[in-house]
Design a protein that fits this description.
The protein is α/β, with parallel strands linked by helices. The protein folds into two domains: 7-198, Aldolase class I (TIM Barrel); 204-268, no CATH class. Helix content is 31%, strand content 21%. The chain has helices spanning 7-16, 36-43, 59-66, 81-86, 91-102, 115-119, 121-129, 155-173, 253-258, 280-285, and strands at residues 20-25, 48-53, 72-78, 107-112, 135-138, 142-144, 147-149, 204-205, 211-214, 219-223, 226-231, 244-245, 272-277. The strands form three sheets. It has a nine-stranded mixed beta sheet. Mean pLDDT is 84; it is low at 263-272 and 278-288.
Length: 288
């Protein structure tokens, strides 16, 4: 993969925008690439981050020691229970989760809720008790092995999903939190969609104004790779002035946060920006 900018250039680009950003870093597995921690350090001098990670890479130990937890909204730790047990086990995941949690980071542990995972969910609960965390069932979306989810969930699947979602909400609501924004990935309420996904097409949305999709080359899109808004690295990025109708269908969690400000109270926080760094691993990997 190609590297489009250095760590210093990314920091300068964020700073030059004149906004305070919260960059949701995803991938791939961002922690697996060289300069991951250095990039997080650079961004969090003046901005905030959140992460998707499988918590298995050794760089996370350095992350826990180097990054200020108050500059990290949350870490979505994806526990791939069946894959980890088939391969290298769960020791690295548990060790990194415990170290990050003990250092003061907000960890949300999610499991993609396949029917087989829902049937074994009590195993995940027992496993995570050792590090004082709790699994959150994450809705299956789209076609898997020719089967369309969430519509393929059985009545038993849906019942299990709702029970474990409620238990997860109770667990995480009891934890102290220093974050100033609700998580952009609201997996704790995925049970609202076990009967089917919503269609946001045409509803007024703040995407492009308070949320953007940022690609590894600096290109900025309103949402879902649509509506190009310039490039952050070369200074041509221009945000929308007003919310506009959704021209997608459903961007999962980001839609729920930014659609229709008359019914979503979270939309009115001033000054702070949210962005998803889509494909972040692309511009880290090529620094090797």
């Amino acid at each position: 993969m190609r590297t489009f900018a250095s760590v210093d250039a990314w920091r300068a680009a964020f700073d030059a925008s004149g906004k305070i950003w919260l960059a949701h870093i995803t991938g791939g597995e961002p922690s697996a690439y060289r300069d991951f921690v250095e990039l997080c350090e650079a961004i969090t001098v003046n901005h905030y981050i959140s992460l998707n990670s499988n918590l298995t890479h050794r760089s996370l130990a350095k992350f826990a020691k180097s990054i200020n937890p108050s500059r990290v909204s949350f870490i979505n730790a994806g526990l791939h229970l069946e894959e980890r047990q088939r391969r290298s086990g769960t020791d690295a995941f548990l060790r990194n989760a415990d170290e990050l949690r003990s250092a003061g980071f907000r960890i949300l542990v999610s499991l993609v809720a396949t029917p087989s995972v829902l049937a074994r969910f009590e195993e995940a609960i027992t496993l995570l008790k050792t590090v004082q965390l709790f699994p959150i069932p994450k809705l299956m979306r789209g076609r898997v092995d020719g089967i369309s989810y969430p519509t393929a969930y059985t009545a038993d699947d849906k019942s299990r999903f709702r029970v474990y979602s409620q238990l997860a909400r109770e667990f995480y609501s009891a934890l102290p939190s220093r974050v100033v924004e609700p998580p952009s990935l609201d997996m704790l309420h995925d049970d609202a969609y076990v009967d089917g996904l919503p269609d946001f097409t045409g509803r007024i949305c703040e995407a492009g104004r308070k949320f953007v999709q940022l690609e590894s080359n600096g290109d900025v899109f309103r949402c879902g790779g649509k509506d190009f808004q310039g490039n952050l690295l070369d200074g041509s990025f221009v945000r929308r002035v007003h919310p506009a109708p959704c021209n997608s269908v459903h961007c999962y969690y980001f839609c729920n946060k930014y659609v229709d400000k008359n019914t979503r109270g979270e939309l009115n926080r001033p000054r702070q920006w949210w962005t998803q760094l889509a494909g972040l691993t692309g511009f880290i990997r090529n620094n090797v």
